[in-house]
Amino acid sequence: MKTHKENYLLPSFIVGFLVWLLATALFRIAGHHFFIVDDVYVMVVLYSILIPSLGFISTSVFNRFKLDNLKSIKSATLMVLPGMILDTICIQFFEKLFPNMPEIYSKTFGSWLMFAYAVVLICGLFRKNKQIKIEYSQPSFK
User: Fold this and answer.
1) Cα–Cα distance between 79 and 89 in angstroms, integer?
2) Integer CA distances (angstroms), 65 to 18, 62, 89, in order
3) What is the DSSP letter of 129?
């Protein structure tokens, strides 16, 4: 029987898929309201939002399953995999999947997606193990 710590693979994949699904739906429905390529400040904010939000999501998964460094990298890889595969289709058929945004936005959208996936992978790669301190007391001989 697998221990709690070994059951992180499928949940990591599912979290990644759900994040992709939510983000894709958000961009399809309302992307034209906030993904404004011509406004540098808006784009800086959109890129900046990725770091804490995806850092929080990925770190939450790592902490939930008490993953060490190697398992955090595996988990991060599984989190980005569904989105990376499915976003190849989204970018290829950008004008059909995101009809509210001009096709010229597809390059910036692809760049933003690559940055998002890199953030998750970096969180897994540079995760620090939490050290558990165990204090030993010496028996006193009196």
Assistant:
1) 18
2) 18, 6, 31
3) P
